[in-house]
Amino acid sequence: MTNKQRILDRFLSYVKIDTQSDPGSDSTPSTKKQWALANLLVDELREMGMQDVNIDEHAYVMATLPANVAHKVPVIGFVSHFDTTPDFSGKNVNPQIIENYDGGDIILNKEKNITLSPEYFEDLAQYKGQTIITTDGTTLLGADDKAGIAEIMTAMQYLLDNPQIEHGEIKICFTPDEEIGRGAHKFDVQKFGAEWAYTMDGSQIGELEYENFNAASAVVKVTGKSVHPGYAKDNMINSLYIAQDFISSLPRLETPEHTEGRQGFFHLSNMKGDVEESELHYIIRDHDKKHFEARKKMILDLGEEICTQYERDCVHIEIKDQYSNMKEKVEPVKHIVDLAEKAMKAVGVKPIIKPIRGGTDGAQLSYMGLPCPNIFAGGHNFHGKYEYVPVESMQKAAEVIVKLAQLTSDQYK
Ligand SMILES: [Zn+2]
């Protein structure tokens, strides 16, 4: 059993450092302040006795825990990100510690009347009796993903302190800029040297994910012909009406607000225009590769159809692929998911295996040659002031890491 106070202290020390990333910046890390936590982690890893501790020019922190068994064991890795989302302030985080949670409302900020209530956030109720870390209602907490970092650090410390637990070589990596979609961009998979890895970046206790969306964006440009409205008969072509035809020709119920689970969608996220020219911005999402391709084709076909209907070249569409479902890369090595499931059960955690309706860094890493399912880090309500994490969930995540190290070794004995 990992020590509760130690993982809590670790977590609290990390969330106090502001590491917000910035999509407007081209550098890596996108913000200078991310270096502060990256450098602290390097110091701590060296101090605890990890090997090959290094940080590269983009602030990727890597370290090795050498094997303590003689037989050959595949090298596995654990990955977390230290940046927080640009969507909400992560400055001056002032965590509140609610011990022995009574199951009722938690007042985050009396002055501003901000309450974390199980009436709105039903998941809270299951943590009655546990120690909950919340915000003070003015910032996010940063459990996404500093909980993941605290868990990996705690697990490594635990393995170092308990050499009787047998394990193969373990690699760990902490990345910048995950929240702006670039956590994997400068990740040196070759140098990392693991056969597979796990991101510790999921939400509630038990989550285990290896399926995510296939994703693309589509920009639809519609051109019309602007003429003085008083003299427009048989001459004006209003791009807004053509755009309207386009929008209403796509299936109205295949949208984010009408879909769940593995159902895909077209999402009209933005539109702008005038008589002369209109622009529609869509994102296209589907877990199934075939359905995903069919969706892209449907958009392109519709563009052509409308051109035919209006007898002019009035619709131009640009589709860009964004990311792919990691299932394609993980399914052939499904034993790495089974192993995680087994590790959870071994430490008394009920696995919740479900498809992600989004993407993860693990998906990108999987396509870069490092199959990488996602394991819970324990937090809830990411990216906002209602974010919280039970310490017991963090402890369990650390135990899952320890158990995974042990099981991997056992399996190759
Ligand atoms: Zn995250």
From TrEMBL:
Annotated ranges, domain Peptidase M20 dimerisation: 210-302
Statement: the UniProt record of this protein carries the keyword Protease: yes
Binding site residues for Zn(2+) 2: 144, 179, 383
Gene3D superfamilies membership: 3.30.70.360, Zn peptidases
Binding annotation for Zn(2+) 1: 81, 144, 201
Subcellular location(s) per record: Cytoplasm
Active site: 83, 178 (proton acceptor)
Cofactor: Zn(2+)
Catalysed conversion reaction: Release of the N-terminal residue from a tripeptide
Highest taxon in the source lineage: Bacteria
GO molecular function: tripeptide aminopeptidase activity
EC number of the protein: 3.4.11.4
Keywords in alphabetical order: Aminopeptidase, Cytoplasm, Hydrolase, Metal-binding, Metalloprotease, Protease, Zinc
SUPFAM superfamilies hit by this protein: Bacterial exopeptidase dimerisation domain, Zn-dependent exopeptidases
PANTHER family documented for this protein: PEPTIDASE T
Known role: Cleaves the N-terminal amino acid of tripeptides.
Family: Belongs to the peptidase M20B family.
Name used for this protein in its record: Peptidase T
